[in-house]
Amino acid sequence: MRFVSFSSGSCGNCSLLLGSRSGIMIDAGVGIRRVKKELENLQLGLENISAILVTHDHGDHIRSLGSFCKRVGAPVWTTPLLHEALLRHPFTKDWVGPCRQNLTPGVWNPITEDFDVQYFVVPHDATQCVGYAIRSGEELFVLMTDMGHTTPEALHWATLATTVVVESNYDLDMLLGGDYPQELKDRISHGIGHLSNDACAQAICDFMHPGLRNLFLCHLSGNNNTPELAYESARAALQAAGVEPGTVNLRVLRRGIASPLLTL
Ligand SMILES: [Zn+2]
Ligand SMILES: [Zn+2]
Questions:
Q1: Calpha distance 250→107 (Å, rounded)
Q2: What is the pLDDT of residues 110-157, one digit of tens each?
């Protein structure tokens, strides 16, 4: 498996997971022209997008989904409830219908030649928000973002994963000491908003297991976090969990900046 994040955070979320014969784009919060350009830099193209997975119906995840449906025509896989929301959402309602593919809960959904997918619901203030477990051969890629708090099911999937992408949204002191209105501070931190660096660190201690090779931190706040703080918090968590330095590839996925094409 190979993986590239085109951007991660409230400015836009979009990434691509590549197998030997097919690719899955996860969320469409980055413009299609930029994605095309980033793909060309990697000697890839829009034809490498065989399917699209959507985590939830917030703009930073679906802003460009309409153009991907129109231009790429790849099937859009998500839950029936989220598809209903996409059929009403101004960003997607005119385009997503013909691409609609419903995921079945609790089973492996074979969505491309290389990949089988299961979803799990995570707490977030959207119509519904889901994390994904994506299987290819012996590899298991688990993504959980926009998650107010962890759940036993999310942690369960992460304990089986070879790669975990997990939200590390905010530093609590920066959030509380910052100039967001109290209502917004509450929305972010009160259980159905986003995962703090501390909560992410606790999650890492909970799901750490010897099979984990890659740990990518995603959806960092631009105002209430820094890549250095998030990285250090996760690094300390790995150390506390007894992980030898260098055993797990720890990386921050950046806001508005593409990662390299990572071999998982
Ligand atoms: Zn988001
Ligand atoms: Zn969201």
A1: 30
A2: 999 999 999 999 999 999 999 999 999 999 999 999 999 999 999 999
- 151 CA distance to ligand 1 middle (Å): 18
Residue position matching structure tokens 């910052």: 178
Q: Which ligand is nearest to the CA of 147?
A: 2
235-260 pLDDT, tens digit per residue, is: 999 999 999 999 999 999 999 999 99
Residues lying with their CB under 5 A of ligand 1, a single-atom ion: 60, 146
pTM of the model: 0.97
What span, in angstroms and rounded, lies between the C-alpha atoms of 204 and 144? 12
CA 28–ligand 1 middle distance (angstroms): 11
SS3 state of residue 236: helix
Q: Which ligand is nearest to the CA of 167?
A: 1
Place of tokens 């997975």: 53
Beta 2-7 vs 262-263: how paired, if at all? antiparallel
Report how far ligand 2's centroid is from the alpha carbon of 147 (Å): 8
CA distance 227 to 220: 7
Separation of CA 9 and ligand 2 centre (Å): 9
